[in-house]
Amino acid sequence: MAAHHKKTGSIISGWLAPHPPHLVYGENPPQNEPKSRGGWESLRFAYDSCRTQVKEKKPDVIIVHSPHWQTVVGHHVLCVPKLKGLSVDPIFPHLFRYKFEMNVDCDLARAIHDEGKKSGLVMRKMEHPEFRVDYGTIVTLHMMNPDWDIPVVAISANNSPYFYDDDVAQDEMLKLGEATKKAIEKTGRRAILAASNTLSHLHFSREPNPGLPEDMSKEHVFSQAQYEWDMKVIDMLRRGDLDAYFKCLPAFMKETFAEVKAGSLTWMLSAMGMPKIPAKFHGYGSVIGTGNAVMEWDMSAGGSI
Amino acid sequence: MSGKIIYAWIPGLPHLLRPELSDGYKSLASAASEVGREFTKLGVKRVLYYSTQWLSVLGQSVQTRPNVKGLHVDENWYDIASLPFDFHVDQVLAKKLILASEGAGFQVRGVNYEGFPVDTGTIVANKLINSANLATGMYSSCVYSDYQETIKIGRLAKSVAESMDGVTAMVAVSGLSGRYFTTEIDFREDHIRDPKDNEWNQKLLGAMDSGDWVAVNNMREQFCRECKADVGLKALAFLEGAGACGAGKKLQTKAYGAIYGTGAAVMLGV
Questions:
Q1: How far apart are CA A63 and CA A153, in angstroms?
Q2: ipTM > 0.85?
Q3: How many cross-chain Cβ pairs, A to B, lie less than 8 Å apart?
Q4: Which of A69, A88, A163 is nearest residue B113 as measured by Cβ atoms?
Q5: A126, A137, A193, B243 — which has fewest CB within 10 A?
Q6: How far is A295 from chain B (nearest CA, A)?
Q7: CATH of B4-269 given 3.40.50.150, 3.30.1330.10, 3.40.830.10, 3.20.20.30
């Protein structure tokens, strides 16, 4: 009998990788049509370490979970080998009109789909060739790897927590994370994960300076209470105290409308086996008042996978 | 100038473009097409859409691109229907809506971008009721505009429509009870997910059908709480501000049914 020594896959690292389109707008990459004078540097520069890590570690794939691909029926995975097009953000069209082109790791996408189904989740493969990829997915992936030379898998955010209650989907995100981990192992991929989540998510309801969206003299945290919540959560993650984090998660979501409610961070931590290792903090900044942090879990520093 | 206005409420899910999937979808789609024929009879010159699926966050948005064209693939229902669209936007209407919004103290942005993703609801409604390809307008549903503020938006839209020539149709694109099935279903067996939602929908429709606006207002908040109403029934606020819910006015139910567990109705203002 021929021996098949398929290498077991692994997760190299996981990143809390927020997606405000303002970050791409501030950077002025060639793919984005609107041009700016800069802005939101504290967050944009926080992604530099991530970009360096991606280049050095050369993962087979980057997997992102995005709150801006909202699905009602189950969890969906992109499953078209090559997707390209123009993604115009319906909320910030004046900031984000991005020509995207991405290679999707469909074998891994199918494996995530299959493992999710096995664990009892409703899963769907998105196979429409003209699908417009959401700006959450694109911004996070651009900020992590603007060269787009690594295949990706994108997973939707099932919006049950917005229809029902916070607990429903967080449980599902734990299962989805475990399914993702199994799929990575079975397909032998070396993966970097991205939780495309902002922390506190209450924000301005008017554009502070419509004539100059990057006017940083108008940017500030939404409230001191929201800022303090963000720092509390960041500190827990920096100490690797996931027990404390999950204990306060319902209150954090309720009081700051935290975008982690969409489940991306829970999914990622679950995929990494709930690693009680200190997350490395790379930067924090507000975007129209929301709180955003770039943080890294380096699994070579001791995770369970 | 005192242009005339007529009103309609159309569901905005793509299932209605696949009437062969269920008798319920067929009935809703057929009623929506009938509303379109009524528009033709009444000499409607333009259609202004307020869709609760076109969300804005930092203020209000008004579509201003003269020809908005493309293919939309819904993020959730991509295998139900591909949605090509080709809207001709009434430039005078768009400009007046922006001026009136600014005049009312709203922050408003004109949207004129190639590739802008027109929302599923507006595309579906337009396909069903606007086979004549009448000029259109689109006003966003701002997340931070509450019910009362949305009434003001409806009011300013009314003043704009009255300042224009001919008949303007004000079309709210939205749903009723908002409880979706969260698993795969057989479309032929689609029904309102919760029997209580069904009761609430029928009660609300009954009051609108008979023009009992006191009853509608009395039950509205409870309706929203009890059956997770689509975007807090802000579509109704828009129509109220636009003049559809005054004394002697009715929103007649032309069809009622379920779309993936949620409540859906086609209504025509008389």
A1: 5
A2: yes
A3: 89
A4: A88
A5: B243
A6: 27
A7: 3.40.830.10
